[in-house]
Amino acid sequence: MSEDVKTRRGYTSVQRTEQALATRRAVLAAARELFTSNGYASTTVAQIAKRAGVHIDTLYAAVGRKPAILRELVETAISGQDHAVPADERDYVRAFRAAPSAGEKIDIYARAIGRMGPRTGPIFVALRDASAKDPQCAALLAEITGRRAANMRRLAADLRATGSVRPDLTDDEVADIIWAMNSAEYYMLLVEQCGWTTDRFATHLADTWRRVLLADHRAPE
Length: 221
Known about the structure:
- By secondary structure, the chain is mainly α.
- It has two domains: about 1-65, Homeodomain-like (Arc Repressor Mutant, subunit A, Orthogonal Bundle), CATH 1.10.10.60; about 65-220, Tetracycline Repressor, domain 2, CATH 1.10.357.10.
- The protein contains ten helices and no strands.
- The protein has helices at about 5-40, 45-50, 55-60, 65-80, 90-100, 100-130, 135-160, 170-180, 185-195, 200-215.
- It is elongated and about 60 Å long.
């Protein structure tokens, strides 16, 4: 095979990969808009395909059927990337674990939740609503909930290891408090309904967690 042929094939392969990624992004963007505005149950695959500007068969090949599309939306909203990223590999988790004090850890995590809120809040509300009627969505919500619970308990243990957490709180209680306040519902209530900025929301989380969870709860200077 000549070098010219190899080059053309390589170029064609790159083009196809880029086109596939562009199609996937278009499908997910269209689905996110429709799921969060019209609801999961009221949105059809045909509507998603039309909004994305692709054929239905192309949509299925790029992402999959509606439950698969919703899963991809949830995973990419959490990771902030085009694909799922395990919790241990996320930048803010690494920064959280490397931080020497409980206050710094809380600040890092609160800022991360503030940045994630615009991505995760609306799509998690859509998932919650969809889970009431769709068994596959209910299973996805249960899976994500289980992952969040496990991650919160690891987070609580990391905070405990600094020696700064209130001794009257168990790790489960610490995890539950953080879990409740980093929920999509809490974000949507304060930001979407009350008009808070994401920066104000993140500052509120950090301040409240410091006051409620730490033995020495003085605000940072």
